[in-house]
Amino acid sequence: MVPTVNTAAEARAVISASKFPPIGVRGQGSPFACFEHGLATPSEYVAKANDSLIIMIQIETVAGVENVDEICQVDGVGINTHAKDLLFIGPNDLALSLLGYTPAKFTEAVFLAAIDKVVASAKKHGKKVGILTVDGETTKKAKERFDMVVLSNDTRSLQAWYGKELKIARS
């Protein structure tokens, strides 16, 4: 997952850095990846990796939304043989960029229009699109529209747990 991709040039750089030759320029590095995947040699891993790597381009700024159509046209963005790569909307940073505050209430017209633009562009170019959600109801609703929905609120979960444990410790 690569945050704050704002232009097609940045998306091309992400693809190039993420994929092995001949698609990109990523180095082979350690042989441990091939062993973890049950392959005998690093060459076997490199041969299979370009089709199995998951690349998520995060659209989370005004510039990213403005350029999303061009970003979607970059070869390697949102496509691979297993259709795992995708555009991913970072709603908190998008809200901060568009609205000047976070989190969004998901009622702000400019915020909703930006999400609509990203989804429409992704669909127009045959790309997958995902979003982060923070509660069950929002996640249920998002599943109707997005190819991938991540229900996550690790900070609030940790805060709730820590608060409970701290209350016990102080009692």
From TrEMBL:
Keywords from the UniProt entry: Lyase, Metal-binding
Membrane-crossing residue ranges in chain numbering: none
GO cellular component: cytoplasm
InterPro entries named among the record's database cross-references: Aldolase/citrate-lyase_domain (IPR005000), HpcH-HpaI_aldolase (IPR050251), Pyrv/PenolPyrv_kinase-like_dom (IPR015813), Pyrv_kinase-like_dom_sf (IPR040442)
Keyword Lyase: yes
Gene3D superfamilies named among the record's database cross-references: Phosphoenolpyruvate-binding domains (3.20.20.60)
Family matches, as PANTHER family: 2-KETO-3-DEOXY-L-RHAMNONATE ALDOLASE, HPCH_HPAI ALDOLASE_CITRATE LYASE DOMAIN-CONTAINING PROTEIN
Stated name of the protein: 2-keto-3-deoxy-L-rhamnonate aldolase
